[in-house]
Protein 1
Amino acid sequence: MKDLVEVIAKSLVENPDEVVVTQKENGKTTVIELKVAPSDMGKVIGKQGRVAKAIRSVVKAAASKDDKKIVVDILQ
């Protein structure tokens, strides 16, 4: 899942070198943290959070076959 978020984020931003994705496991819950450059934050979040919601939906759909809960956090 970490790789999926990284590919999506790098395709959206102007500074793909500054994209950092970390993954933490807590039992059945996996937390994926996404950090981008401050100038790219708006592109990752989108208007009214639509892009962020779409990223979360894609990751959730990909994780549904593994029966795991995935949480995607976008950090500053």
Protein 2
Amino acid sequence: MKIKELRTENYNYNLSDEKIAKYPLENRENSKILVYNSGKIKDKKFYNLPELLSENDLLVFNTTKVIQARLIFRKKTGAKIEIFCLEPNEPADYEQIFQTTKSCLWKCVVGNSKKWKKDTLVSDIQIYDNNIELCATVISTERDAKIIEFSWNNPNFTFAEILESAGVTPIPPYLNRESEESDKIRYQTIYSEQKGSVAAPTAGLHFTKEVINELGQKGIKTSNLVLHVGAGTFKPVKSETIAEHKMHTEHFIVTLKLIEDLISNLDNIVSVGTTSVRTLESLYWLGVKLNNNPSLTNFQIAQWEVYELTSELSAIKALTEIYNYMKDRNVNYFEAATQIIIVPGYHFKIVNKLITNFHQPKSTLLLLIAAFIGDDWQKVYEYALKNDFRFLSYGDSSILIP
């Protein structure tokens, strides 16, 4: 497969540290937005977004909420152990694990793990006027992570409350600074709802209530999905070719309303962020799999699967397969997982326009941009670098219209 032979170095550019936005602008909508439309480029302010869209456009937001995923423990020796909660293990469901009241298991990455052998770590935390003892114990070790049991001695509090009180905002490592109190608000979209992400869907960080209201006044429609963003989103492609890079798996939830909205507005789908892109494009291929196998039970897209599936199925037919599946079972929610990697050579099935930030060199996100607008990604990034755009999570925005 020639797609797998894509060389990582071809998707590299020089990003100096001074171009990386270490902090967000005070007013979200004052960020710059680069407008790429059929090869032409101009820059505007993000508050100009409503005038950059058409009245028949449908914006799709990812309403995942970032959790305070980093927990800091101190050993009696003084050694600092940082535990980064990646995804639920038991219960495996996000909603259920946040409601646990005694203990739960998480897949985690541990910082300074050499200093932590088999002993249980203990941290004294306070929620309101309650002193709580939070314990962490390693249950097992995987290749790149550990399964850790968290337990606490007050069943009146859920793990969601434990994290909210004791956890630290997991800002991206490339900011090269410690999380601050302000990050709790600014590293969160204003429309975030469902807890589960360890990284923000950063394209949404520019939206304000005023911008969203103005979109509505223009008649531009919106719809929501949930994809919980994993830490793998920051994982650089270190291999010479893309074939050797392993994508992380992310879980997503879509509603019957979203499927109806997509069917009604095909050819006018505006994805807010690459997380929404991955979800929307995965939906098409899940529809193909349902069409091929009506008794399908494994709702997961593997990394290279979409390049191996052959289908002439239209987008509306694929989405209708999911719609009928949900209606037949009288369910309003559809849960699935995706490991999809979108690289040059991929043919988009659902997404027509993309709102996104500027991404790291040699990242899978940059490869997705290159798949969406072709080699013009170089022109876009060169323009942004020369015209003082701010890069990465807290940086400026772009709207890409092929």
Protein 3
Amino acid sequence: MKAEYDLATLKSRKNPYASKLKKPVTMRLSEDVVKYFKGMADEVGVPYQSLINLYLRDCLANSRKVQINWPKAA
């Protein structure tokens, strides 16, 4: 490896991994949901936001659909 590099001669190029970067979003989650994921994250030793991302990625990979059963109006 050289001791010095001339950075002025380097040409820029796009980051090939830029499309795979995570996008920051703001979400409103119930306190009990956050507590649940934080507890699980502590057990496995990962940040809770990463755990939520892994769970959502698993839903995506397995094409899970949300099933909501609303209570019928009386």
